[in-house]
Amino acid sequence: MFEKWFPNVDIADLNTAIYETFYMTILSLIGTFIIGIILGLLLYLTSRGKLWENKIVYGIVAAVVNIFRAIPFIILILLLFPFTDFIVGTIRGPEAALPALIIGSAPFYARLVEIALKEVDNGVVEAAKAMGAKNSTIMFKVLLKESMPALVSGLTVTAIALIGSTAVAGVIGAGGLGDFAYFYGFQRRQFDVVFICTLLIVIVVFVFQFIGDLISNKLDKR
Amino acid sequence: MITIKNLSKIYRTKKQNITAVDELNLKIESGEIFGVIGYSGAGKSTFVRLLNRLEEPTAGEIIINGKDIVKQRKNELRLARQEIGMIFQHFNLLWSRTVHQNIAFPLEIAGVPKKERKAKVDRLIELVGLQGRENAYPSQLSGGQKQRVGIARALANDPKVLLCDEATSALDPETTDSILDLLVDINKRLGLTIVLITHEMNVIRKICHRVAVMDTGKVVEQGDATHVFQNPQQDITKRFVRQLDGSEQYASLSAAVVKEGTGTIVKLSFSGENVNQTVVSQTAKQFDVDINILQGNVLQTQTGAVGNLFLQLVGNESEVEKALDFIRGANVKAEVQELV
């Protein structure tokens, strides 16, 4: 059945491609989460009237975030080649895609984190202050904890954008489903390969969205 | 307990300076319920937030338990705040935590070990009457229940002072009453000093021992609640008192009497021990006047009862005069009212 519909698809190659896509998405998502939370917290805390109000730091972080969000992903990969080569030791394969994926999506997630934190009621932060909480307690136990559902749904959106980016990275040799679709499907004119890759990516996106919504709803006690 | 000297808060913007609290002086005694009343914009909310430095004072001293809060450094202030409870108009609970976890939060902050926390929280839940709701989330509670959680949370670290920032303003009258009863109960049982900010005279009447009236950042009048009710000096205080004693309706009342045409209208004011006297019936027996009771009420305050009675006295002038002298002789304040 499968061979009849997809005569040109090599199952072993396809499995490798799926594995690589997951590998890139999940690792870069972890990196994006960590850097995005840090940048988002910085943006929030240094903005006006907040715990670490500081115009200069805010200005610098905001500028960096905006610049990296402005660069199209495909150009960012090319731009980061020397950096990637230095860090990873190669510019080919899924590992080599990670720096560009993380640097490309962390600023995006940082903005989502900032928005999520802004949604936390200032009164609650004030109540914690009135109880004599340390700034670190306010950060981890109030701000991040209270905005958790928004942080998770933001991460879901980011994950889906990341899956798209892994496919773009695939075209310039990072591996994964994008790579598979382009080299085996498009260049060899085997459109059944393109089709199966599309189908799989759509399924992966749905799975991420479903899991994200599930966790976010579970956390939301409002 | 709390001494406030020359406390000022000035908000500086590019265009102008706004003085929210202006050279304020106050003394709040240990164990009393002290009310601060004022219209919005009077600076009362800023005032209460200055007491635990949620707002930084521009000048002045705030001495709580012998320590000047204004001079304290960050870490000292943090520890001092753990001994000052605060409740808010909008409760400010953490929605991601259950009732139990919300009340445990200040204990976590103070570094109380987990076992003790559990026991303490259970006791507090009982104190505020929320047994059975320990594992509910704030979104599943009514407004009154949320404020009970707020109160339990504020009491968790055994504070000496409880600050209430419009704590009942978002609640309906019945719930307000139950929360006020709870505050009185806590005040008596724990000997807690309560500083309460409100715009509702009713709240002051029900629970405050002493009251300060604030207007444009200053305290314009203060004293025992009963005394202030009885003898309001400033116009603004009179306006607040009128919310309660029925003289609001006096205007429409006197219009009705004018139609009737005759008689003298007198406002009798009672306070404290003479509230229950039978002065009206005695007057009717002893003098040749007809007495028409137009309106009256007696309000229970924390330090005694306060009452007002509007009477229409019909009879000849000298007899009415004698009746008035008799009433005044019975230690009741009697004022002849002009027909409006």
Report on this structure:
The complex is a heterodimer of chains A (222) and B (340). Chain A is built from eleven helices and no strands. Chain A has 222 residues and is an all-alpha fold. Chain A has one domain: MetI-like (MetI-like fold), CATH 1.10.3720.10. Chain A is elongated. Chain B is of the alpha/beta class and 340 residues long. Chain B has two domains: 242 residues, 3-Layer(aba) Sandwich (Rossmann fold); 91 residues, ACT domain (Alpha-Beta Plaits, 2-Layer Sandwich). Chain B has twelve helices and 14 strands. Chain B has a six-stranded mixed β-sheet with strand order 6-7-8-3-9-10, with helices on both faces. In chain B, strand 7, helix 6 and strand 8 form a beta-alpha-beta unit. The mean pLDDT of chain B is 87. Classes of the chains: A mainly alpha (222), B alpha/beta (340). At the A-B interface, helix 7 and helix 8 of A face helix 2 and helix 3 of B.
Task: Pick out its properties.
heterodimer, A: 222 residues, mainly alpha, MetI-like fold, 11 helices, B: 340 residues, alpha/beta, Rossmann fold, Alpha-Beta Plaits, 2 domains, six-stranded mixed β-sheet, four-stranded antiparallel β-sheet, 38% helix, elongated, membrane (chain B), nucleotide-binding (chain B), ATP-binding (chain B), Methionine ABC transporter ATP-binding protein (chain B), ATP binding (chain B)
